[in-house]
Amino acid sequence: MKMIYSRKQSQKHHELLKTFLPGGKYSSYAIKDSSSPIVFCRGKGSRLWDVDGNEYLDFNLKSGSAFLGHAHDEFSSVLGDFIGAPFFADHYSNELAACRYLRQYIPCCEAVRFGLSGTEIVLNAVRLARAYTHRSKIIRFYGHYHGNADPLIYSNKVLIERPFLRPFVTEGAIDSHIENDNLLLPWNDIEAVEKAFQDYTEQIAAVIMEPVAVNGGGIYPKEGYLERIRELCTNNNAILIFDEIITGIRMGLGGAQSVLKVVPDLCVLGKAVGGGIPVSVLCGKMDIMNAYESGRVIQAGTFNGYTLGLTAIGSVFQIIEKHADNYYQNMERVMKNICSVLFESAKKVGFPVSVQGPLTCMSIHCTESELKSVDEFDGKVRFMDGVLRECFIGHGILNAYTSRIYANINLTEDDVEFFGKRITGALEDASLLLS
Ligand code: PMP
């Protein structure tokens, strides 16, 4: 093994932390990883530094949130104005900027509501769909992730034998009624969706999906698939919800819906839209969102519409809008160059890799050919991708879980060079570990 980074200080910290925090990590998904966590102390642009003095090219970006990179001057200065400011109880003067930007750029956005986390806002979207339609059943898809809440994480018994397949089974912890209301279908199988609408006529409140199955390995919808689901929802008076917690802002200011040209009834945004500040958004068609006005459905939370979060959204849009074409083109160019360097090294080392999904939230897989389904990803490939990630980290390339790499607007050719110097060692380690 050629791991070049020693993480003694991080390990010491982790040993202490474990005495307080069962599992020693903040996410159950991270506990599955074998490595000890890294303790960071500084960040700028695309780079992070840990307490042992190691430098990392950050493709994790706090699970994709820090889309402007770290310590972005303009963003930090705007946010700084609100740190130590009064905690406004009701409304404050510049909250309209966030609302205006969302309506301007997100195709389905006629009205908005705000939350703090992705999970919370997805739950609100599902509740709204149920209240609006007076129906209870929700169609979801294997491999798509919608957050850490019982109705979103539940899966059926088949999955117990395939523990890698998301949504995860949390046996014994989930109310039994959830089983009846969740229709879990395979992604990209239009007949399955058509059949569900036939079998449960006038019972389906909503179809919820990641419009690109990023959590399922980066699998795009097949041609015509989204359009047909759109049509089925319209014809059956069901609500189409896009979970754009990852793809929103990342695939362009209008998210996946503007790139794929299918407009949902509701969509949720989180992560990148707040630039690293915890905030989430529910956007949607006015007649559905008006259910809040009539009081037929409740959405509430101490920190909803929190000053810092709404300021962050306004600032993220403002910063990106000024140079939007440049930022997106530059990220795509740099990510393509990262791919070329990756493939070159993989060829040299004789290690199988492929990449797929949108360039700004791309998955690196330990396979030679593109994965066609979420099933192909789950299991062995997901496991190997996790090992690959550990090897990347040992060489200063910080990927997100499994082995996803998130772009940020600061990426330059320097980052490609940094990546190029380290990738061969990382792949050699992976090839030793996985042989
Ligand atoms: N939806 C998607 C598509 C996600 O990727 C995530 C988080 N990874 C969530 C929802 C949940 O968001 P949060 O972790 O902020 O609750």
From TrEMBL:
Any one GO molecular function term: pyridoxal phosphate binding
Q: Which Pfam families does the entry mention?
A: Aminotran_3
Could you list this entry's UniProt keywords, alphabetically sorted.
Aminotransferase, Pyridoxal phosphate, Transferase
Please tell me whether the keyword Transferase is annotated for this protein. Answer: yes
Question: What are the names of the required cofactors?
Answer: pyridoxal 5'-phosphate
Supply the Gene3D superfamilies for this chain: Aspartate Aminotransferase, domain 1, Type I PLP-dependent aspartate aminotransferase-like (Major domain)
Similarity-based family: Belongs to the class-III pyridoxal-phosphate-dependent aminotransferase family.
What PANTHER family does the annotation carry? GLUTAMATE-1-SEMIALDEHYDE 2,1-AMINOMUTASE (PTHR43713), GLUTAMATE-1-SEMIALDEHYDE 2,1-AMINOMUTASE 1, CHLOROPLASTIC-RELATED (PTHR43713:SF3)
Record's protein name: Aminotransferase class III-fold pyridoxal phosphate-dependent enzyme
Annotated source species: Bianquea renquensis
